[in-house]
Write a structure and sequence with these properties.
The chain is α/β, with parallel strands linked by helices. Helices cover 38% and strands 15% of the residues. It has twelve helices and twelve strands. Mean pLDDT is 90; it is low at 1-14.
Length: 370
Amino acid sequence: MAPFVRNPSLNPAQVAGAVRLALTMGDACGIGPELIAMWWRAQCQVLAPDAPMALVIGCPAVMRRAMALIGAPAEALVTLSDPAQAWTLSAGQLGVWAPPGLPVDVVEAPLGRVDERAGRAAAACIRAAVRLAQSGEVEAIVTAPLHKEALALAGESYPGHTELLQAEGAHPGQPPAPVRMMLANDELKTVLVTIHVSLRQAIEQVTTASVLETLRITHAAAASWGVVQPRIGVAGLNPHAGEGGLFGTEELTVIGPAIEAARAQGINAIGPLAPDTVFMRARHAPPSHPGEFDVVVAMYHDQGLIPVKYMGLDQGVNVTLGLPFVRTSPDHGTAFDLAGTGRADAASFTQAARVAVQMVTGRRQGMAAG
C-alpha cells in the first residue's frame, strides 16, 4: 500500500488556493465513514496540484474504526477541537471534528442496523456543515449517505438530505430557497421537478410554477459546470408526452406554458418531449453519440433517476441545485450489508468530491469574471 502522504510538492500558494471540502460522515452504521477513508487514501496516493483539502464532520471514534479498516496508520486521523485546524494539518493527516449535538455513544450503534443515534449524528453533521459553508469556512459539502428511517427515528421531519439542507440553508427570518435535485454522471444530467413524495403527490405538484422554477434553477446552475447557455430538454409527464392530449393534457396545460415562459426569459428549454426517448437523446458519449441536450428536466423522482442509475451507480453524483453553496453526494445509500466488511466501493463518493471541486472552481471563475 502506498504511504499516506499528501503531495509534498505543493507550495503555500497552491495550498491556499485549494478547494476546502466538508465531508459529512453520514449514517455511522453504514458505509459512509469507510467511503471517506477510502477517498482520503486515494487522495494521498495521487500527486495532484489541484487536490482539495478536507475536513470530516463526524464522530472521531467512528472514523478511527473506518480508517483502521482500510489499514491507515493511527496518526493519519487527527481529532480537532476547532474545524479551522483542518487546514493546518501536516501532510497525510485527515482532520475530524465532532459537531455540537453529536451523540457521544454513536460508535456503539451496531453496524448494518437502523439506529436512532446514527440518525441524530447524521443530522448534527449536516447542520454543522451548513453553518461552516455559510460562514465561508468551507466551500462545498460532500455528504456520505444517511438512512432516512434512522433520521425519522431521531425525530427529524425531513425525508432526506435535500430537504434538510434546504431548511438549514435558509437565512434567518427568510423562507427556504427553492432547491432541486440533480443526478449526474459524465454522460447524462437530469434535474427533478419533484423529489421524495408519492407518485400521486408528484403528479399534483407538477405545476406551471414548479416546472418554470426548475428551469430557472437549472439554467442558473449550469454555469458552475461550465455551460452558460444550457440546452435543457424537458420531459413530458405522460406517455409520448401526452400525444397531443390523447394520453393526458398536462403537457398542453402545465408543462408547455412553463417552457414558453422560460424561453421568454432567455432560457433554452425544449419540449415537452417523450420521456421514453429524451434521456437517450441527451446522453453525451462522443464521438459516436453527442448529446442533443446538456441536461434533462424530469417531472418526478423515478422518471429522472432510473436512466442515470441504470448507467452505473459507481459514477453517479447527486447535486443539490439552488443552495448558496455547493453540495454533492454519491447516488447510492448506506449499504448496511457492506458496512464494516471493507468491500464498499468509493467510486461514486470519489466522483462526488471531484464534481464538488469542479463546481467550486466554476463558481470562483464566474465571480472573477463577473
